[in-house]
Structures are given as structure tokens and as C-alpha cells.
Design a protein that fits this description.
This protein has 81 residues and is α+β, with helices and mostly antiparallel strands. It has a single domain, classed as Winged helix-like DNA-binding domain superfamily/Winged helix DNA-binding domain (Arc Repressor Mutant, subunit A, Orthogonal Bundle). Helix content is 48%, strand content 12%. It is built from three helices and three strands; from the N terminus they run αβααββ. The protein has helices at 14-27, 32-43, 47-59; strands at 30-31, 63-66, 69-72. A hairpin with a 2-residue loop joins strand 2 (63-66) and strand 3 (69-72). The longest helix has 14 residues, at 14-27. The two termini are 23 Å apart. The mean pLDDT is 85.
Length: 81
């Protein structure tokens, strides 16, 4: 679920995890396993939730995955900040 309910802990929601993934990818491209390990330490999410967020970011055109390496796609003037 993308939008959290009022009873949900915000630290593990898809929006917060997605923002953490984007912040990590701004520093450098990462292999999927390393990216999951970094996010899991901070948010303690399941592998299934991680891949849900990754698919959302990929479908949104924010990340590209090639040979298990994830990179942030820079979009010019409307860049994600």
C-alpha cells in the first residue's frame, strides 16, 4: 500500500522507504542486495516490501536496473530532491 493509514508506523511505509532508497542512490549506484541490506538496517522491512518499492520506483521512471545494479535516473530540471 502506498498511502499509509493513520494507525501505521510511518518509518516502514513505502513512501519513506522509497525516499531512503533515492537518498542512497544519490550517493552511488548499488547492487540490489547491498541496497536491500542498507534499507533493512534502517527500516527493518521485508524483502517483499523492498521489491514492491523498487518496482514502484522503476515504473515511475526514477530508477534503472541493469545487471542487478540499481542507478538513479536524473531527469533534468524536474530532478528529485
Amino acid at each position: 500500500m502506498i498511502l499509509p493509514t493513520k494507525h501505521e508506523d510511518l518509518s516502514g511505509t513505502s513512501l519513506v522507504v522509497g525516499a531512503t532508497l533515492i537518498q542512497a542512490l544519490k550517493r552511488k549506484n548499488l547492487v540490489i542486495e547491498d541496497l536491500y541490506a542498507a534499507v533493512r538496517k534502517k527500516h527493518n522491512i521485508s524483502l517483499s516490501s523492498f521489491f514492491d518499492v523498487m518496482v514502484f520506483l522503476w515504473l515511475s521512471g526514477l530508477v534503472d536496473i541493469n545487471n542487478y545494479e540499481v542507478r538513479l535516473i536524473h531527469q533534468g530540471a524536474g530532478d528529485v530532491s
